[in-house]
Amino acid sequence: MPSWDKAVFLMDAIAILYTILKKLFESIPGIFLFVLCGIIPMQILNGQENKNIAGYYALFDQTIGVTNSGIFNGVLYVEKHPVRGEDHKFFGSKSFMPGSVDYNEQSYFNVELKYDVYDDQLLIRNSEISGSPIAILDKEYIATFKINGHIFKNISFSTGKSNELSGFFEVLIDNDSLTLLKKHKKKIFRMLEDETDGVDLYGSKLYYKFKDQYFYYLYFNRYYYPLKKAGSLNAIFPQYKTQLKEIYKRHGALRKTDSESYLIAVIKDLSDTLIRNNNSM
Fold this sequence. Notes:
twelve-stranded antiparallel beta sheet, 8 helices
């Protein structure tokens, strides 16, 4: 067998072993630790027994290397939208940030992620390879991801009237009674300027600007309701109009200074009201 084929075979074997060990750990953590003891010096494992699953996965990913973990199977990313300044298409920052992702029924921690809001796709960077190539993760296999402390879920649903929605939604509230989701979007603008980085177009330079857009959805009783503002809750919960009036008043100070924090506070308060009402029945 040629040396290159041997290398490919070895990489595939490592990836398969990695998958088997992770699935064993999900059901029998002790087996996972036993196998690790034969791979990692014992001093690294000391004190790990009280860590959570994320800690064990991150330790194993660090040992085997994320290149061999099976997550870098996406399409190579090529930037199509040069920008100037901070009017970019990404969530939070143009830079990669540490995060985690549940991909193809496996959890990966401490990976470098960037969320392209405009194209609604998740990018991952492999710093273990020369040039740090960037891949687009297959959205079909992404269940959730976390970046910069924000949690996103891959969801498909309908709000009625053939209004089908799908993609990544930020989870702002998620409890037994109510779930509040935020859909991030970016509006694109084509710009031309003589002296700037960009793509040549008719003797000028083409570049892009992006503007943030947000849409909110409330999941309640197996249905998704679009929320334009906190007052939309009156139509969803007509039996709680009196309580909602008090809730709006209680958090009124936030309404003019931070509309999203106001919406979150109102819905959390309403959720507590629903829970108390259900418990009293």
